[in-house]
Structures are given as C-alpha cells and as structure tokens.
Amino acid sequence: MLKPLPLKDFKGKTFMTSNRFTDALFQLVKSLEKAEKRHFKLYIKRSSSNENLKIIQLFDALDKMPEYDERILLKKLSSVTKPQLANLKSHLYKQLLASLRLLKTAVNIDLQLSELLDNARVLYYKGLKLQSFKMLERAKELAKTNHKYNFLAQVISLEKKIETLHITRSTLEKTEVLTSEAADIGLHINNVIKLSNLALLLYRWYVENGYARNKEDEKGVRSFFKEMLPPQPEQITDFYERLYLFQSYCWYAFIRQDFLMYYRYSKKWVDLFDEEPSMVTVETGHYVKGMHTLLNALFNLRNYKTFQVILKKFEKFAATPASETHDNFRVHTFIYINAAKLNWHLMTGTFSKGLALVPSIEAGLQEYASYVDMHRILVFNYKISMLYFGSGEYAICIDYLQRIINDHGNLRIDLQCYARLLHLMAHYELGNDAIIESLARSVYRFMAKMKNFSVVEEEIFKFIRSSLQVSSKELKPELEHFLYRIKHLEKNRFETRAFAYLDVISWIESKVYEKPMSQIIHEKYLKSKHTKMSPVQMDYN
C-alpha cells in the first residue's frame, strides 16, 4: 500500500537536528551535478596554495556526507580547527559561486551581460575609455536583442558617465541618441515594474485565497486590477511588457473563475514565445510557467483534445537542453508535467492509471525536497487524494487529506476548506456514521470561519445530514433530488469553484446510476470525442 507523502518532510524545521537544509554551503554542494563538480575541481586546482588544497578536502568531505554534521566534518578534517572551519567554509562558498558563474556564463544571457558590463567598468577604471565604449556597444546590442532593458539602463548610465566626465570627441548626434535612449528605457522599465507588480500581487492573492468566494471578493479584485492596469494596454508591443500584461490578465481571470478569459490570455502568454523562439532560452522559467498555466486553463475547460496537444508539446520541451540549464527549470518542469498528468486522469476518470504515477512523483518530490515549495506539496497531496477517492480507496484518501488538514500554514485557504469537505465525504463513503455528525459540524464551522461557503457546499452538508436520517430505500429519491438541486448551479460562475475542486455531480451521478465514479467521468470524456469542436479546440487545428 502506498504511503502518503507527509508535508512535514518538506519543511526545513524537521531537519533541524541534522542541519541538512540549514547549512547553506552543504546545500550548495549537494545541488551540484557531476559536470559542475568536475569543473570546480579544475577551476580550483589552477592554484596550488595550501588554502585551496584544504578547500578541496572540505569540498570532498561535504560531498560524501549524507547529512551535515559539523562534529563528523571536523573529525574528517583533522588539520582544521573549529574557528578555521567557518573561514574555510566561507571561502569555499565564494569559490563555488565563482566556478558556477564561469561555467554558466556561456548559456546564460544575464551572466553574459554582467560580464560585459564588468569588463567595460574595468577598462574604464584603467583609463581605456575607447575600449570601454566598444565593450559597452557589445553589451548594448546583446541587451537589445534579448529585451534586457534593465541591463541596457546600466550600460547607458555608464556611457553617460564617461561622456559627462571626459572629453571623448563624441558627435552631438550620438549624445542626443544617448539621452533619447535613456528616456525611452526609463519609460519602458517603469511600465514593466507596474505590470510585474500587478501580476505578482494578483498571483499572491490567489496563492493565499484561491478563487474569489463571492461578489465582494470579485469587486475588490476587479477594482484593484483596473486601478493598477496602465492606460491603453492594447498598444503595448514590447516583449516583457506584454508578458506581464498577459500574466496579469491570467491571474485576474483565474481568480474570478472566468476560465475562457484565463485560457485566452494563457495562450497569448505561450504564443509570445512562439513569436520569438529565442526568448525561450532567455526566459525559460516564464515559458515553463506559461505552459503550466495553459494546461490548467484547458483542464478547467475540460478541453481534452487540446490538453493532450499542449502536454505533448511540454514533454517535448522537457527533453531539450533548455529545460536542463537551470535547477529551477528542471524541478518546475517535473512538477508541472506531473501535475498535468494527474489532471488528465482526474478529468478522464482513469484514476487507477493516475495512481500508478504516484510512486515516481513522490520519489521526485523527495529528490527535489530542498527546491519544492509548500504550495506545490499541498496541491499534489490534494490531487492524489482525489484519485484515491475516485478509485473508492477512501481510507488512503483520508491519509493524504490529513497531511493538508494537519498543516498549520496560511497557504491556500480554499484547499484547506475543500480538503476538509472531501475528508467528510470519504468518511461518509466508509459508513462512519458515528462521527459524521460531529465531523460535519467541525467542517461547517471551519468553512464558515474562512468565509468559504457557496450554495453547492451548503447543499452537500444538507444532503449528508438528511441522508443519515433515511433508510436505504429512501436514499435514492434523496440522491436524485440532491442531483437536481446542484445540476443547475454548474453554469453559475460563483459556484464553479466547488466543481473545480470536487466533481460533486459525478459523485452523485455514480450513486444515482449505480456506477463507479470513474466510469461516470470516463463516459463523459468519451462523449466529448463525438461533440462539435469548441473555439478553444479550433485554435489548435
């Protein structure tokens, strides 16, 4: 039997006894790949000083340790005292970063630009102004090609400084171009800051609260969005401005449960990279997030065909060098692709096949434990619990839900509420009548406190309570009446939140028609194959 992955295993606090995730140097050493370790050894051995030999010894000792323990480390480094160890660790940390910087410069635009700018400064400080200008021109062209206007601002700032302090014999035309460029870049950077702030704040609202719970929530989000949105956003043409604009619209639509708008802007987000393929390697993180967002939109719309097209495209990208150039890219690609695979099985009713993925997902999450945030673990545990619920394995479903319920963080109030509601439904399925009444009261109080109620949830509570009072013969009419009451709520935008988290309709239909929940959902999937293509599907055909 598979054991659920405890949330506490991913909290640094549980490793305080071993300092596994509290020692920065140890964490950096353990994050290195074979090629990075080999490069560091070559880099450091260029100098044969005694201090660098000690650094190699410290590096090797840390590399071989399964967990950080300073007492064991000092025993392995017999020539090093405890006061010396702190300085040695600090020196090793700096040398590792220098080695990684040298190795990654060739594949990272930001590092290339930093190097060019640093070289220009060095040449300027040596009095070689014309050589410095040439270096700055190279940096300027690279920054313009890759839309790196923050770097461009630094390049122009240094150019202006040299022009102001020294007689460079520059033409009047060049000086005017320089001042004009500075003004344009300042305006652009200001727009990027405003739009990225808007996208970030909307995303933070969602991470903390989930969907808008009522008209009051929606009114507040709408007012904030309109206030922060720049005038005439349709005239924005720059890559980064458009990127953050589309992200802002995505989170705005997602919070309001406008899933069609959410899809349209997530598609614009991904299309932006299709228009400029070179930016995939420059802003890989944003591309990966965009693919994840687009898959989420298609999941919410239950657009099966297009979902498969995009998932295959994402998996193809995951096999390219671009996805491997950064630890964060590799981890996020793993997380998002596996989340999408679980979503596929949730929306097609193939729960058993979905559960077959769980061991490899949990192994991956353990491997990437120091990189995975708590929000991702919450989502995975909830999705896995849904697979177990749909498979009729309610006891294991409860085990996974307990990992969410027992967590005392303040992330995803919506998930905290629906985990408790699904927990109640699992106990109901197990026939634990003795605790249902008190459990229902507890969940009701929690959701009321969090202001997370909708009509659908109210109806679920009514049904569970009333069904306990009727005989098995009378239950069928109760189920049919319950299904009738909630079916018409499916198109209500403020009620879709409940259906996005819990496929309540399929659950009740499985009871009314006396079929497994997996069969009910799978039949809906099969039926969709024979329906007319939606506008969303037409976009990809």
Give the tags.
about 0% strand, mainly alpha
What does this structure look like?
Helices cover 74% and strands 0% of the residues. Mean pLDDT is 86; it is low at 1-21. It contains 28 helices and no strands. By secondary structure, it is mainly alpha-helical. It is globular and about 95 Å long. The longest helix is centred in the middle third of the chain and has 38 residues, at 172-209. Helix 6 (109-125) packs antiparallel against helix 7 (129-145), helix 8 packs antiparallel against helix 9 and helix 23 runs antiparallel to helix 24. The two termini are 43 Å apart. Among the domains are: 7-106, no CATH class; 108-170, no CATH class.
Tally of alpha and pi helices: 28
β-strand number: 0
Label the structural class: mainly alpha
Write down the secondary-structure element order: HHHHHHHHHHHHHHHHHHHHHHHHHHHH
How would a textbook summarize the main sheet? none
Radius of gyration, in Å, reads 28 Å
| Terminal Cα span | 43 Å
Low-pLDDT runs of 5+ residues are: 1-21
CA-based shape: globular
Q: Mean pLDDT, rounded to whole units?
A: 86
Query: In what range is the share of β-strand residues?
Result: under 5%
Specify the helix fraction band: over 70%
Short note summarizing the structure:
The protein is an all-alpha fold. The chain has helices at 24-31, 34-44, 50-64, 70-76, 82-104, 109-125, 129-145, 149-165, 172-209, 215-228, 239-255, 259-275, 279-282, 284-300, 304-318, 327-348, 351-355, 358-367, 374-390, 394-405, 413-430, 433-449, 455-467, 472-487, 496-501, 504-512, 517-528, 535-538. It contains 28 helices and no strands.
